[in-house]
Amino acid sequence: MRKPLLVFNDKGIYCEQANVYLDPWKPVQNAIITHGHADHSRWGHDNYITHTTNVPIIKHRLGPINVTGKEWNETFVINNVKFSLHPAGHIIGSAQIRVEYKGEVWVFTGDYKTEDDGISVPYEVVKCDTFITECTFGLPAFKWTPQAEVMDNINTWWAENRAEKKTSILFGYSLGKAQRLLKYLDPNIGTIYTHGAIENMTNVIRPMVDFPPTTLVTRETKKEDLLGNLVLAPPSAHGSTWIRKMTPFVTGTASGWMAFRGARRRRAVDKGFVLSDHCDWSSLLESVKATGAEKVICTHGYTDIFSKYLRELGYDARTEATQYEGELSEIEKEVETEITSETTS
Fold first, then answer.
1. For 180, phi and psi rounded to 5 degrees?
2. Which Gene3D superfamilies match (predicted)?
3. How many DSSP H helices and E strands does the chain contain?
């Protein structure tokens, strides 16, 4: 019996024939990286390969590394194994990795979404025999509202807060979510201020994307300057002294977890907006079907539920443990009980 082309071990997803890992979570010699989030691109590898768009992003986050950039659909061969990168649509520079050897094709999605956000290159269907898919939101209860509608709601919320002379503080991850929000915030409402982590990352991406102007929050920034305006901040800033000096303010967060009642309350935010950089349930199913794959490996997220459903549909589906988290972090633990109760009621 032929060995699997890709295997999961204690360091990551490994292609033995090429001696290459895909998004390894421990230091290895050769790593192909799907995107810049910290759970997928880690420090310590000898050699990195990623999409050219992602090169400045991971250099910003990891420091001086030996990295090679590849273009979309560019084939590169390592010990007779053919690799290529294809758009994942998750965040800017995010890729799926196609691996081919002796006529067998595997695709590793990393994290992905199929809705075009206008920033990242839209998701591309890649035909394969085995499809490794994330399942971050692999429950039927997750169904996303179109991005344009969500952003209209965010801008309306900001305008209402401005009318009440309150500062709007909007939380989003510093890489990906923050830029997606920034792209569609209406600067005609007021000034867009940023936390340092978001400002620094956005400056790395600005040469590639047309963003509205932003103003960095500094020690010299007065709360009077912020009144009626909007501050983009990472979730880690919530409850910090940095935030408390901005009163009076109203808080909002953009996340797929906001689809559930109680998630906003548990996060102690005033407003929740359902906006995720991952697929919802139907998009996951549509993506699996479109690949034509017979075998599906489900990773990070609601893997058991999603893989069981795929088996009921006739797929050869199984799960594999990884150290990827995505949006499955603190919020997941907080809404776990609620998700279970809502999906079974």
1. -65, -40
2. Ribonuclease Z/Hydroxyacylglutathione hydrolase-like
3. 10, 19
Percent over 90 (pLDDT), the chain: 85
Domains by residue range for the chain, with CATH: 7-142+277-344 (3.60.15.10), 147-273 (3.40.50)
Query: pTM of this prediction?
Result: 0.93
Q: And the tokens for 181?
A: 């929000």
Q: Which residue has the tokens 């709360």?
A: 223
Structure tokens at 135: 């399942």
Look at the block and give the residue holding tokens 């090679």.
68
Within the chain, strands assigned E span: 7-8, 13-15, 20-22, 30-32, 47-51, 67-70, 76-78, 81-87, 95-101, 104-108, 130-135, 167-171, 192-194, 215-216, 230-233, 249-254, 271-273, 295-301, 316-319
pLDDT at 340 > cutoff 50: no
More confident residue, 331 or 210: 210
Residue type, 18: A
Q: CA dist 10 to 186, 234, 322, Å?
A: 46, 31, 9
How much is the pLDDT for 338?
34
